[in-house]
Structure formats: structure tokens, C-alpha cells
Inverse folding.
């Protein structure tokens, strides 16, 4: 995306960027960039209540976020990436321009859209997401990355559409915040659970399939908790890895741990730079591309299941 990063570990979008102190400690420990928590258009509209479309009122709602961009820019020696989640076509563009004016070095579009409407086919949802990316990328000069949740039936063609729409990066994946059921109260519950490394393979598959087929820079978001996780993501083609759950659980010290263990792994394989590692095991370059294919899947299912623990 044209950003110069001193390490491939990025602090991902979350409440982590609300406080300067832990964020500075992440950066001191080696984080290469930070993504701010998303600015949610619906939240601004909800908070503003009456006449949220008036220019002055809208600016007032966005002001605290823009002030935070400026504060982080002044305090941090690494790129500050703002994150945006809009709901109306005009809202996305307006917010993106304000973010650019405030000094963010890039924008991550959080295209989080759990579509449950019975009438809207997937193609219509995808068209809308691509339109959003196109309108935002066309309205700002800073690079725009698209952050997707998993579940698209044909990710590579969709990624190509984002590329055509002017996006420069793709962040895979956001996590769906799924409901659970409390059987005592008989209510639906929604609780934000932190990830584990078990969520990484879904990302490895998508990244590995996309690497080398697009000019979009790929970021892995989800399930990166250790240096080994980061190494795997780079090997399938991620340009950077984003961490959130690991940092929320273990604090800013996790940044140094992950980077030290990544470095040790790379040295162990005789890799002098992240560039040398990147994509070495992607679908396009894998020594055994069948490992990515369906044939392998069928074979895997026929193997005896793992022993019970
Ligand atoms: C507390 C919390 C807040 C988050 N806030 C945002 C957000 O504002 N915007 C966004 O795009 N993702 C947000 N995320 C998702 C993370 O950026 C990330 O995509 C996800 O947690 C997967 O990464 P992880 O496995 O390292 O946690 C949030 C996650 C957590 C745990």
C-alpha cells in the first residue's frame, strides 16, 4: 500500500487504540503500524439523534475520532491507519474524506455486513461492497484497504473486483460475532470472545489462494497469537499480520514475544528477510499445490480420525 513499515506486525483495529500508553508500548516493542478502532457511521447518527444529516451536526459527531487520529499521529513514529464502517453511500465518502484531512496515512474499510435479509442475493450484497470501496477509494488520495469477514463463495473474483475498484489492500478476515443461547434465561446472548490460533487456518487458506494473483497487499487478521502463527501467515503470502486478541490477552509484551519468535523461526530456515519468506508456500508457489486442492480434502476425510484426547 506504499507504507514503509519497520516490522510486519500491525496492531489491529480494536479498543487497544483508545489509550495511548499501551499503544506506545506496542510500538516500542516493535509494532510496524496501528489500525484504529472503527468509526461507525450508525453510532454517530444514533448519538446525534435529531437531524444527523446537517453538516455541522455531522462534523461534531466525527470530531472526537478525528482528534484521536491527530493525537496518535503526533505520538507514534509508525503509520496510523483509520478504520471506517459506514452505512449510507454518502456517509462512507464523507467520513473517509474527513479521516484523510485529519492526517491518517491509510483507511481500512470495515465492510462488516452480516446480511440476513431473505430477499437480497449474495451478488447484490457484493455489488454494494464493491461500490462502497470504489466510492471511497475514488474520493481520497491515501491508500484504502478492504477488510472482509469470511464466507464469500468465490473470494478471488471478488478480490479482483476490489482491486479494480481502487483498493490497495485486503484484510482477511474480520470475525463474525456470533450469538449463543443462555438456556437459564432463555435469551440470545452476544458476547465478544477473543480468538485462539485455531482461527488461523481459515485465513491461511484464503491468503494462500490469493497470493500472487492480485496486486492487492494482503493482511492476515485473526488467530495470530505466536511467532509461528505470524510465520505461517507470511509464508502463504500475507504482507503483514494484525494482532488483537493476543495483545488484549497478554498485553503489549506479546508484540516483542511474537516478533522474537518469528525472527528465530526465520533464522532457523535461513531466511534473511520477511520478503524472502513471503508467499513461499502460497498456492502459486507451493511445492505441492495439491495440498490446497479438493482432492486432498477427500483423501483427508478417509484417513482414520485423530485419537481422542
Ligand atoms: C475488543 C475488540 C474490538 C474490535 N473492534 C474492531 C473495530 O472497531 N473494527 C474492526 O474492523 N475490527 C474490530 N475488531 C476485530 C479485530 O480487528 C480483528 O479483526 C479480530 O479480532 C481478529 O483478530 P484477532 O484474532 O487477532 O483478535 C475488534 C476485536 C476485538 C476483540
Amino acid at each position: 500500500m506504499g507504507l514503509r513499515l519497520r516490522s510486519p506486525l500491525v496492531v489491529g483495529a480494536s479498543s487497544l487504540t483508545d489509550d495511548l500508553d499501551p499503544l506506545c508500548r506496542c510500538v516500542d516493542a516493535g509494532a510496524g503500524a496501528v489500525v484504529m478502532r472503527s468509526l461507525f457511521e450508525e453510532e454517530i447518527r444514533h448519538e446525534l439523534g435529531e437531524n444527523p444529516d446537517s453538516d455541522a451536526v455531522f462534523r461534531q459527531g466525527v470530531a472526537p475520532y478525528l482528534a484521536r487520529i491527530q493525537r496518535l499521529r503526533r505520538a507514534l513514529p509508525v503509520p496510523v491507519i483509520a478504520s471506517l464502517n459506514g452505512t449510507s453511500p454518502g456517509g462512507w465518502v464523507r467520513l473517509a474524506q474527513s479521516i484523510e484531512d485529519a492526517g491518517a496515512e491509510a483507511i481500512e474499510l470495515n465492510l462488516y455486513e452480516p446480511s440476513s435479509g431473505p430477499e437480497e442475493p449474495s451478488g447484490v450484497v457484493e455489488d454494494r461492497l464493491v461500490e462502497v470501496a470504489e466510492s471511497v477509494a475514488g474520493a481520497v488520495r491515501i491508500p484504502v484497504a478492504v477488510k472482509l469477514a469470511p464466507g464469500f463463495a468465490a473470494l478471488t473474483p471478488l478480490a479482483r473486483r476490489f482491486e479494480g475498484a481502487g483498493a490497495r489492500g485486503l484484510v482477511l478476515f474480520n470475525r463474525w460475532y456470533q450469538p449463543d443461547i443462555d438456556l437459564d434465561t432463555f435469551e440470545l446472548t452476544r458476547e465478544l470472545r477473543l480468538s485462539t490460533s485455531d482461527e488461523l487456518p481459515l485465513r491461511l487458506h484464503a491468503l494462500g489462494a490469493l497470493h500472487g494473483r492480485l496486486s492487492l497487499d494482503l493482511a492476515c487478521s485473526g488467530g495470530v497469537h505466536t511467532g509461528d502463527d505470524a510465520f505461517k501467515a507470511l509464508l502463504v503470502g500475507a504482507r503483514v499480520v494484525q494482532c488483537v486478541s493476543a495483545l488484549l490477552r497478554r498485553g503489549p509484551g506479546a508484540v516483542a514475544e511474537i516478533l522474537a519468535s518469528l525472527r528465530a523461526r526465520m533464522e532457523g530456515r535461513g531466511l534473511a528477510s520477511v520478503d524472502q519468506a513471503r508467499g513461499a508456500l502460497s498456492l502459486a508457489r507451493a511445492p505441492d499445490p495439491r495440498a490446497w486442492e479438493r482432492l486432498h480434502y477427500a483423501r483427508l476425510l478417509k484417513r482414520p480420525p485423530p485419537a481422542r484426547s
